[in-house]
């Protein structure tokens, strides 16, 4: 019996379940760069280079390990434009009895693959994705009976399950589960932030860059200065680099933003973890070892591990528990189109310009830019969830529906009615000024609210609070905002609302 083993572009590890117990002589591994996957959103050019180059390197590694690999390189005129067509083409060869794959990360493709056994007339074995620390069922069991899901409680379960940062007595190391309160420092240039880890493009990557520039010229972003790792070995070096040079300050400056620094003390590991080049558990263990070895403080290490063991696992569980309905949620009734400057960065709002421009150059922006700048603006302005979700899915090298959607629709847009987060992360310009140095170089004045040159985030914040009174007034975590709003003089409230209206009418010109 011979199997076709399909490996997807975000399953690039020899530990992937589809490869287990395979017969290298008889079975055939199939990997394919296809139009449908490369074009279901306006993927950033660097994301395409990363995926195609990493896929090509991985296929070579499999061949070197003795696997027979059928690999389709991208060409716009390829006969097979979808993964199904590639598999169907391979099935025409006699002798294949079964298709094996690991469950894919996105509902869109999952729906297609789960119909293949009928469409292709061939048994299709879909194996669980064991790269995650919690299985879908484990998450569903935890979530059962809970009206709202809170990451913190799930995270503690994961700490207990894995033993990460746990004492032999079963207590959290440092006597606290969470050191977030220590992780809110503004960064003023010292200590200097490390340059991002770089891998210079080899011949394969250089060829892919040429092809992406030619075939995907109209996609967002640039291939210039591509320096992501594209192999597991190089991604492991990126992890070591992070642990040595950035992790010690990761906690302190986790929420900071800078006008001059794109990356600060973030790990820049999500593109590798999500595509399979790095194993999430191994990443957490490396961070924990840095703390046990006295090379990084607990607030940094716990904060970092929480992002992976907590948030990453949590959003994945939530996605699979609630799809496909989750994608259609719009509980705040938003109807505004995404402003065009999200694609160009052409806005006088300095923080927005900086975050979008970094996104365009790097296919990366760090969490607080995604959450409190581009996300916060979309929330305050009432952008349609599907449009802002599609933007986030397109522009980041780490973006896949399973992780992007809950972060954007739930965490940022509060479009799920508070299922993921207990309150919206709405903030005025004051927050951005507290955590960054953007405002001092901004066209708009952060200390003004109603004037023509006032920071748009200020009036938009109050406009949001006012127009969503019915949604939030009874939320205990929002009571203070409503008391502050109600305390303001009626003339001031009217002026803020008028300014908010004007900003929304002129949104494309901000
Ligand atoms: P670090 O700050 O160094 O964090 C370490 C790791 O923790 C990351 O590599 C990532 O694996 C994990 N992580 C941190 N926060 C989250 C989170 N909220 N959800 C899931 N994992 C997390 N992350 C993605 O991987 N893909 C996305 O498409 C994505 N879209 C996002 C959209 C919005 C609006 C927001 C607010 C967050 C999004 N995130 C997404 C989460 C987070 O912003 C990125 O994981 C992080 O910025 C990646 O950079 P890093 O590797 O330097 O992360
Ligand atoms: C993201 C992506 C892209 C851009 N291209 C391909 C591709 O050509 N072939 C492939 O197998 N996978 C690709 N991927 C990753 C898939 O879209 C991903 O596996 C699904 O979205 C499920 O997470």
Tag the structure with descriptive keywords.
510 residues, mainly alpha, 5-stranded parallel β-sheet, 5 strands, binds flavin-adenine dinucleotide, binds ligand DLZ
Query: What is the spatial order of strands in the main beta sheet?
Result: 3-2-1-4-5
Structural class: mainly alpha
| Poorly predicted residue ranges | none
Bound molecules: flavin-adenine dinucleotide, ligand DLZ
Query: What is the assembly state of the chains in this entry?
Result: single chain
Cα shape: globular
The biggest sheet, with number of strands, parallel, antiparallel or mixed sense and barrel status, is:
5 strands, parallel
**What is the number of helical segments per DSSP (H or I, 4+ residues)?**
23
Query: Over the alpha carbons, how many angstroms does the gyration radius reach?
Result: 24 Å
Portion in beta strands: 5-15%
Q: What proportion of the residues is helical, as a percent range?
A: 40-55%
The counted number of beta strands is 5
H/E element string?
A: EEHHEHEHHEHHHHHHHHHHHHHHHHHH
The whole-number mean of residue pLDDT values reads 96
- Note the gap between the termini: 63 Å
